[in-house]
Specification:
2-C-methyl-D-erythritol 4-phosphate cytidylyltransferase; Spore Coat Polysaccharide Biosynthesis Protein SpsA, Chain A; two-stranded antiparallel ribbon; binds magnesium ion; eight-stranded mixed β-sheet; 7 helices; binds cytidine-5'-triphosphate; 24% strand; transferase; alpha/beta
Length: 220
């Protein structure tokens, strides 16, 4: 089995609020996207395509190895992944879709996803349990129900797919439909999505506090 990685890196990072695109924000001196790409390669992915903001292509090219292919991302994450998928070379029979915003994903998570695909799973996502009490509120913010959390999971990336399954699911998805992850795209096409154990270190950098925590993880 050979896998191509698609890294969604075309977002602006509005919640992080930096003065450059989130994927270019440095962590211990290296842009988040560089960490994310290295994690995929270290975990066993052979080839990487990164979807970038069109206006910042030169900065991404300067930061990443020349073997990494860059494509212009779209207005939504779904559109960015679609662009990356279209650009990926024909050799790979598996696809791992990853967020540049998860810089410290341990290579073992990547390897677990690849191993599940190698056993024939069409789609697999890394997950963690929900540890907080989780509730439903009404418009006023009043709690209306508590959700039994034993069967809930938080979903991370990279998410792995049989390539033909993911290509067919994106082809079946109407243009302009936005889903928050790729597992949702294949589930919309009726594909069963399996799970492997995620890792807290694969946390997503969304707000400044997350970047602070990531910095502590790498000793900065
Ligand atoms: N992403 C993308 N193309 C978009 C929007 C998001 O490739 N049009 C990517 C981001 O670069 C990020 C990942 O999808 O690596 C997860 O998205 P998120 O954490 O929401 O990042 P941003 O959209 O950049 O942040 P924000 O929503 O705060 O603006
Ligand atoms: Mg976003």
């Amino acid at each position: 089995m050979s896998a191509v990685g698609i890294v969604a890196a075309a977002g602006s990072g509005s919640r992080l609020g930096a003065d450059l695109p989130k994927a270019l924000v440095p962590l211990a001196g290296r842009p988040l996207v560089v960490w994310a790409v290295e994690s995929l390669l270290a975990g066993g992915v052979a080839e990487v395509v990164v979807a970038v903001p069109a206006a910042d292509r030169a900065a991404f090219a300067a930061a990443l190895p020349g073997t990494v292919q860059l494509v212009d991302g779209g207005a939504t994450r779904t559109a960015s992944v679609r662009a990356g998928l279209a650009a990926a070379g024909p050799a790979a029979d598996a696809v791992l879709v990853h967020d540049a915003a998860r810089p410290l994903t341990p290579p073992e998570v990547v390897a677990r996803v690849l191993a599940a695909l190698a056993t024939g799973a069409p789609a697999v996502v890394p997950v963690l349990p929900v540890v907080d009490t989780t509730v439903v509120v009404d418009e006023a913010g009043t709690v209306t129900a508590a959700v039994p959390r034993a069967s809930l999971r938080r979903v991370q990336t990279p998410q792995g797919f049989d390539r033909a399954v993911l290509v067919a699911a994106y082809a079946a998805l109407e243009d302009g439909v936005e889903l928050t992850d790729d597992a949702a795209v294949v589930r919309a096409a009726g594909v069963a999505v399996g799970t492997v154990e995620g890792d807290e270190r694969a946390a997503k950098v969304t707000v400044p506090h997350d970047l602070h925590l990531a910095g502590l993880q790498v000793g900065r």
